Amino acid sequence: MQPVKYFHTVLLIVSFSAQGQTCMPVTITPVITPAVCGGGNGSIALTVTGGTAPFTYNWNTTPVQTTATAANLPPGIYNCVIRDANGCLTVFQDEVTRRSIVSLRPTARPATICAGETVALSVIAQGGTLTSYTWNPGNIGGTNITVSPVVTTAYTISGQDAFGCEVTASVPVTVKPIPNAAFRVTPATVCLGTPQTVTFTGSATGTAVFNWNGFAGAAVQSGSGAGPYNILFNTAATYTIQLQITDNGCISGIARHPVTVTTAPVAAISVDKTTICAGDTVTVQFTGSKSNTAAPDWNWGGGNVLSGSGDGPFKIKYNNNGLIVCTVRDGICAAASASQAVAVTPLPVAAFIADKITGCAPVAVKFTNQSKQADFYMWDFGDNEKSIEEQPVHLYTSPGVYPVTLTASAGAACTTIITGSNNIEVLPPPVAAFDNTPDVNVPIEISMATFEFKNNSQYAHSFRWYFGDGDSAVDREPVHWYKQPGNYQVTLYVRNEIGCTDSVGRGAYVVIADKVLLVPNAFSPNGDGVHDRWVIPGLRAFPDCQLTIYNRYGQTVFSSRGYNEPWDGNRNGKPVATGTYYYIIKKGRDKELYTGWVEVLR
């Protein structure tokens, strides 16, 4: 759309004559183009008639314009000095106005509210329409909106007309504050007969109306309107005081404060026993009067609370004399207290030791009584036997594990029972017994005089065998070879884990010399533990025997007088080669000879 041009009456034209010149009258016809949207797009075009041409122009613009048309003008008043050829001057003045087609008329209903209420805002565009509408604060679009300001606010409506120009208008909304109904009650909890003060702490104007509620049942001693009030309730109870304020048409919320009025408590307690043994308990119960919200304060005087809370009943354990004190404070009422002493008789200290805690049946155990503060004793030895001796000795005849309990008493009521930290353990005694193969009293040649012993002992932990030939063994079931003829006795000693012993002997073991010498013809001295030596059973029975072994070259590789050690397959400490070797055995003084060969295997 093109800007509208206006032809109108000139604001001011002043002409001046040049010295010595005759100035002809001039006529100035302006054409003014308004500034659209108030921007720098207005202009003034002058048409000059009369006078003496040519003309010069000088506008009061920045920068100075010097043509008949001044362009790019914002709204304002402009001057132009026009000079003709004769030096005659004419001053022209006129105004560039702002082009405005549309105006806005906003309204607020209601224009005055209480804080928190709503206002309907609307707008009417006059002289045209706008392409958009925006309300601020809030940046809300539309011609009709609802707002809830909390303080007095000027709402501005803005938009653009068909020229793209922004059009604005504003409407005020007055917000009246909501009165604050806050108040306090001091003190909030009182004992019956104590006055209280109600003090307004909120905000309101001097014309506000105060609506108090909750003073029923109280004597208002002083106060009106906003207060402060001095009140006195006549009955113990919990009350609620309320306040609501109406101020300049605005109504506050309801403020509430609870008020507690209590009666003075009465302290009383019951204790089921006042004399007890150390470690016993008493039952305690509050029996006085108080409100349901008040809790007694207990001092147990060294007692240990096992159970209970509040008013009780409580189970209290005492080891020494104590004093129970109960104090009751109900609200801010004066405290009341009650007390009861508890007398405690010390318990005797039961203690003992035993001279032994293990033994083999039958075993006598001596008990040493180390108890204190006792005058009577009862022993339970764990085997259905009892005693009232102070320092008893008890004989256990049967194996078993026996707990020993001592009850020490002081008077008739207070007792202490202790069970020994170690049980008395009575073990069955060990029983030594054995048999063997071959049997006793049967002559056995030396080559066959190897006896295998079967251990039939009971309850034994360790064993020691004595074979009667100077040898012994600690195996459970040993095997023994007698190397010389003779009659032997074998004795077995047994011991259990606590040192109890038993023994048994058998005999005679009859060992005779071999009638015929049996000589093995091979052995394997390879260190595997099997046949590593050339053993000739029965040869030991001939202490005067001689043994010589030769290789195939007739060289002596082993010789001995008497048969102390069997040949181990070595010559001078080194193994002989695998092969056949030859032996000569002289049995004894009778010079009976045995010859033959033996094979050395590796």
Estimated share of beta-strand residues: over 45%
Helix/strand structural class: mainly beta
Radius of gyration: 68 Å
**C-alpha end-to-end distance:** 133 Å
Cα shape = elongated
Report the CATH architecture of the largest domain: Sandwich
How many structural domains does the protein architecture include?
7
Helix content: under 10%
Q: What is the CATH level 1 assignment of the largest domain?
A: Mainly Beta
Low-confidence stretches: 1-12
| Number of extended strands | 59
- CATH topology assignment of the largest domain: Immunoglobulin-like
Brief synopsis:
The protein is an all-beta fold and 602 residues long. Helices cover 0% and strands 51% of the residues.
Tell me what you see in this structure.
The chain is mainly beta and 602 residues long. The protein has 7 domains: 12-99, Immunoglobulin-like (Sandwich), CATH 2.60.40; 103-176, Immunoglobulin-like (Sandwich); 183-262, Immunoglobulins (Immunoglobulin-like); 269-345, Immunoglobulin-like (Sandwich), CATH 2.60.40.10; 352-418, Immunoglobulins (Immunoglobulin-like), CATH 2.60.40; 434-512, Immunoglobulins (Immunoglobulin-like), CATH 2.60.40.10; 522-600, Sandwich (Immunoglobulin-like). Helix content is 0%, strand content 51%. The chain is built from no helices and 59 strands. The strands form 16 sheets. A 5-stranded mixed β-sheet has the order 11-17-16-13-14, with no helix packed on it. Strands 19, 21, 24, 25 and 26 form a 5-stranded mixed β-sheet that branches. A hairpin with a 2-residue loop joins β56 (570-571) and β57 (574-575). The protein is elongated and about 200 Å long. The two termini are 133 Å apart. It comes from Niastella populi. InterPro entries: Ig-like_fold (IPR013783), PKD/Chitinase_dom (IPR022409), PKD_dom (IPR000601), PKD_dom_sf (IPR035986), SprB_repeat (IPR025667), T9SS_type_B (IPR026341).
